[in-house]
Each structure stands twice: as structure tokens, then as C-alpha cells.
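Protocol step 6 of 9: fold each sequence in the batch and record its C-alpha cells directly after the sequence line. For illustration, a two-sequence batch is reproduced in full.

Sequence one:
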Amino acid sequence: MIKTRNTPLLLSTSLVGLLTFSQLVDAAELKVIASGALKGAMAHLQPAYEKASGNTLAISWGPSMGESPESIPQRIKHHEPMDLAIMASETLDLLAPSGAFDLTTRRDIADSPIGVGVPHGHAHPDISTVAALKAALRGADKVAYSQGASGVFIRSELFQRLGIAEQLKGKTLEVQGKELVGTALARGEADIGMQQVSELKVTPGVDYLGPLPKEVQKVSRFCATVASQTSNAVVAREFVQFLASPAAHQLLTESGLEPVQNSSNQGAKQ
């Protein structure tokens, strides 16, 4: 039974019913390697898609960057079987020469800003301005960020731009692999943490404070592309199209992502 609070899922399922999927004799199982930035949205997108298409999704989550075994670059390097992948656009740019993807199927899906959170019930520091954010980070005993795209920016650029890199030495926690920064916050391993808004908003035990101030914000674009070696190419292409549909846009927005409205720039970059 679907609860009233999941009304958007009912609506999106109805909208998905308007889409056309290939009628297969046997339902397909799509193996998807995906960034955790879409995890919250996929909690609703997956059942809506599966109900409408009859296919199923086997999603393996991981950060778009990093050297951990769960990271998308490492999975591609080790030729993990997949039908399609969803990752930060800059990661796909780096992986394009590998030949692992059919770049003609590349499609921009959503933009994701970086947000700030604290453990549930803790004091809510002001992070609405650059000065306030700087003070909040300096005042924390431990600052968490991810190994993925947002974490690379935070570690290599944000701290330097704020002028607090030296002050934070020994006070940071880089959350490894597919684990979310919010999970570390919920366990009390850090006082404040930064990650994609869409990841912080769906993690239990976290109070989401808001996005980074626009002056120091980094928005990551996430895109989907079909694997070059897959027996499910038709179904995988249809799923990528589904991610760009009005039904998917609604749920992407609710999870904290910003759907790409104009996806006319599809295929390999020129």
C-alpha cells in the first residue's frame, strides 16, 4: 500500500505510463553503475520505471572519482559488467578514451550543487555567506567530505579559496568509497559535512542546512551513457531517455537535483 506522502510517486508512475518501451518476450535486467548523487531520486524512479517497462534495474553505487574499489573509474578499469552508467560529466570525459561507452548515447541528466549538513539535533551554524561558512568550518572539530566529485573540489579548491586549508589540517575526514558523508555525520564522526545536496537530503540522521554560498559553489553535471559492450543496448537507451522524461524530472527535483531541461547536446562532445 502506498502512503499518502508518496503522492509524487503515484503521479510519476502515471506519467511513466505515457512513455513507450520496447515489448520484449523476456524482461531485461539492466546492470547500472551509478553515482550516489542519484540514490535518493532512484528510490522512486526505479519502481516507477520497473512497473512501466517490466524490466528491472540492478544498481551498483559508487563515487564518480577516487581510487577506492567502489569508485566508478576503478570499476571501469577492471571491466565490471554493465549496461549503462550514470556519473559526473567530468568523469565521463576522463573515461571516454577507454572505449567502455557508446558516446553517441551520452545524455545530460541533472545538475547537483554541494550542500552542508550536521548531525541531527546538533546546533545549526550559519552557512549562508562565505564569511559565515568559513567561521562554521573553522569552529568545527571535524569536517567531512566525500571521495567523489564534490570532495575533490572541497579538498583541492574550496578550503584554499576560503583561506583555511592550513587551519583544517588534521580536522578533516574524507569519507571513502560508496559511503555517504551523511552516514558519517549520523554516526557522530564529524561535526559538519559537505556533499551533493541530493545525497545529504536523503540520509537519515542528518540536518540539511542548505547549499554552499553561490560565490564558492560548484555544480556538478551528471550524465548517463550506454556501455559499448552490452546485449541490452535498446533497453538501456530507453532507460536513458526515461531519465530525461517529465516523470523523472519531477522526482529528480524533489531529491535535490536540478534536471537538465534541454538535452539537445547529446552524443560525444565535439
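Sequence two, same batch, same settings:
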Amino acid sequence: MAGSDAQGMQRALALAAEAGDAGDVPVGAVVLDAAGRIVAEGRNTREETHDPTGHAEIVALRRAAASLGSWNLEGHTLVVTLEPCVMCAGAVLQARIGRVVFGAWDDKAGAAGSMYDVLRDRRLPYRAEVVGGVDEDDATSLLRAFFEARR
């Protein structure tokens, strides 16, 4: 794993903690450029904004596209604390993100290898490299603590 991936994951984990503090599922995401610099970030905002698309990945991708003035994010990396769902995996492919790095696996709704493998589906015209399990323990701990507090 590149140093920029590790730094990106640390920032994504901080954003995830912010989401949890705000009452949203603790997921954070950053978009890195080819040099490993953060160009945009996002966290879950679904509860806060009452927007079903308010997932960390979607927020980060929208901000990256706005910042760069283009929907095409080819050459960029998405770093996210939880394996993307089907909606987020579709958005990643639509944005032409070439690489996805994530922390915790999502065996209930993950679309990057656990439940589905949308990001690497050979039937689709575009695919992304996937690196899973990065800082998995930290990402999983945030999620576990959030849900245990709500039980």
C-alpha cells in the first residue's frame, strides 16, 4: 500500500468518526489524485440531509468532480472506510475512478468483492482495481461501536 493510501485512510477514518458523531453511519471517503494528494473528501450525510444518496463515496465523488470541473476522475483513487455498496460502486465506475481502497468488508451489501463484485465485473465497460482490508480493524471498530450504542 502506498503511503498516500495510508494517509488517505487516516483522513477517511477521521471523517467517519465525524459522521458517527453527527448520527450517521461512520463512513468516510477521500479522493486522491495521481500524486496521492487529497482533492476531495466526504462522509455519510444521509441522516443529516435526509438524502438516500448521502453516502461518503458519493459526497466525495461529487466534490472531486466539482473541484476539478469534470465528472471524469480517471487516474484518481477513492479511499473509503467501508466496502462500497452497489450504488457507490456504480458511481465509482461512472466517474472512471481507476482504483478503490477500502477498510472494512461489508458482507451484507458490499459490491467490491464480498457480496457482489461490481467494480471488477468483466461484463461492464469499465473496471477498477480494488484493495480491501486496509486499516480494517480501525474501520470495523468505528462501525461496531456505532451500532452497539444504538442497540
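Proceed to step 7 once all outputs are recorded. Observation for sequence two: The mean pLDDT is 96.
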